[in-house]
Predict the structure of AcrR family transcriptional regulator.
Amino acid sequence: MSKAYKTKEYIIEKTASIFNTKGYAGTSLNDLTEVTGLTKGSIYGNFKNKDDVAIEAFKYNLQLMSQLFMSEKAKEKSYRGKLLIYTKVLCDSSGSKLPIGGCPILNTAIESDDTHPVLKEFAKKALLNWKNDFVEILNAGIQAGEFSSDLNTEQVAITILALIEGSIMINKLTDNNNHIRLIMESLRDYINQL
């Protein structure tokens, strides 16, 4: 790895939690220089602008979250179990295993929906990929006889996604960990009835 590559990776890793916590608009260049210990010139020597840093930070946070869920799903043999891991991960210290700041898809989608079309597209693509992952699990579960053959997998997948993201948003907004647990109990019941 070249020094430039290492520096770029360092900037991404250090700024990812700032962007995921403060958002794009709330993150200043001073925040970036403070958290990295680098000068403005060093940051902009590796990225065209703040947008580039924000996009790479989003990708980094998304990768952290994806790896967490993939490693947990790999431990499960059943398709139902693969869906239920989301309830376990989010109830485990109310999602504390997620990247600092919470779900990057939720955070980026909320902030960028009217203000930053490029980040909105990245969040939208990530959300739809996640939904498609649920559809694949559900279809495989139907084939394996774990789920009812008449499931509308698109509807079930988007419902699961809405409950997950909604529970994270409510938990963050209210600072009440009991809310995420209650919603995850409802999601667990929903998945067990499929």
Remarks:
- Residues 5 and 78 are 40 Å apart (CA to CA).
- The chain has a mean pLDDT of 92.
- The longest helix spans residues 117-143.
- The two ends are 48 Å apart (CA to CA).
